[in-house]
Write a structure and sequence with these properties.
This protein has two helices and no strands.
Length: about 130
């Protein structure tokens, strides 16, 4: 009768040994739940980080294209200066109009660093 009454009221009658075992099982379940929750949060953070890296690489690629375009335009301007403008300006010196010499523009020696290629992943690791 006591056991039926306890079950009807959702009460578990147990000895201290059984109660201790049940408490250990519940504690283990809570630990596993916490581990699973931490793993989910790590996965979410990893996805966020990966998405941000993709966006950063997109911006960096755009900067590289702009830098390449800038260097091309700079080289075109130097070509025009050296091929057409400076020879015409030097004729003024030859004619005695001025004695001031035009210095050549500073040579750009710095080069952007080329990124290392990103290694391709095996298809097995993409699961």
């Amino acid at each position: 009768e006591l056991f039926e009454y306890a079950i009807d009221n959702k009460v578990l009658v147990s000895s201290p040994v059984v109660l201790f075992a049940l408490l250990k099982a519940v504690a283990f379940g809570w630990q596993q739940h916490q581990i699973a929750e931490n793993a989910r949060q790590i996965a979410d953070q990893g996805k966020t980080l990966y998405d941000r890296i993709l966006k950063f690489v997109e911006y960096l690629s755009g900067m590289g294209k702009s830098l390449e375009s800038c260097v091309m335009k700079y080289n075109e301007a130097i070509g025009s200066l050296e091929g057409r403008l400076l020879p015409a300006a030097r004729r003024f010196i030859e004619m005695g109009v001025t004695a001031k010499k035009i210095d050549s523009p500073r040579h750009v020696e710095l080069q952007p660093r080329s990124p290392s290629p990103v290694p391709e992943e095996d298809s097995e690791t993409e699961s």
